[in-house]
Design a protein that fits this description.
By secondary structure, this protein is α/β, with parallel strands linked by helices. It has one domain: 3-Layer(aba) Sandwich (Rossmann fold), CATH 3.40.50. Helix content is about 45%, strand content about 15%. The protein has ten helices and seven strands. The strands form three sheets. The protein has a three-stranded parallel beta sheet, sandwiched between helices. Strands 3-7 form a two-stranded parallel sheet. Strands 4-6 form a two-stranded antiparallel ribbon. The radius of gyration is 18 Å and the shape is globular. The chain starts with a helix and ends in a 6-residue tail after the last helix. The model has no long low-confidence stretch (mean pLDDT about 95).
């Protein structure tokens, strides 16, 4: 940040994440503090769970296996499309009026992971189940060879997130871009059409 400001960068946008306080994400908390103290005009973009985790990110192998497990129970969250996040970032970088703001970027409605997984399963035309228990998550992580201590820390962080309860859409995508955010069903249909979940 210091180097950027020293060479004349006037506007900085940080891609962060929602609920980092609850999850105890010290890395992102420190990054946000650094940006705020940079001396540049700053904007922080905090997206919720990203749709593309199901076809490009860490949940894609689980979809292929047929079992998605995230230890958050039936808590509902407004999944957000990566294209909508990008549109907010571009607006914050290229337009006036976003300095000193933190945008909580969400999709148009909250879904449970079970509901989102079911939408993906229908779009992909393959059976995909969801298990939101810590036990299922621990078993999956053991199968991947992950250290038990790390897995238990992740389960505790997810439990703290679930304890926050259902999360509501914020409307920040439409406020910033002038258009509504992408529905999860639209994302899943487009991903399936480009062959995201083909064997």
């Amino acid at each position: 940040m210091r180097a950027a400001v020293d060479v004349g960068v006037r506007r900085i946008v940080l891609l962060s994440s929602r609920a980092i306080e609850t999850m105890g994400d010290e890395r992102l908390l420190a990054a946000e503090a650094t940006v705020r103290a940079s001396g540049a005009e700053w904007t922080i973009v905090r997206p919720d769970w990203i749709d593309q985790n199901f076809d490009e990110g860490f949940l894609a192998p689980a979809v292929g296996f047929g079992l998605v497990t995230v230890p958050v129970g039936d808590v509902r969250t407004p999944f957000v499309d990566a294209e909508d996040i990008a549109a907010v970032v571009v607006a914050a970088l290229t337009q006036d009026g976003h300095g000193g703001r933190t945008y909580e970027v969400t999709g148009p409605r909250a879904l449970s992971f079970a509901e989102a997984t079911a939408i993906v399963a229908r779009a992909a035309q393959r059976p995909v189940a969801f298990d939101g228990s810590g036990e299922a998550y621990a078993a999956a992580m053991r199968g991947l060879g992950m250290p038990e201590e790390q897995t238990q820390a992740e389960i505790a962080a997810f439990a703290a997130l679930a304890a926050e309860g259902d999360q509501a859409p914020t409307g920040d995508v439409e406020r910033v871009t002038g258009r509504p955010p992408t529905a999860f069903e639209e994302y899943a249909a487009a991903a399936a059409a480009r062959g995201a979940w083909r064997d």
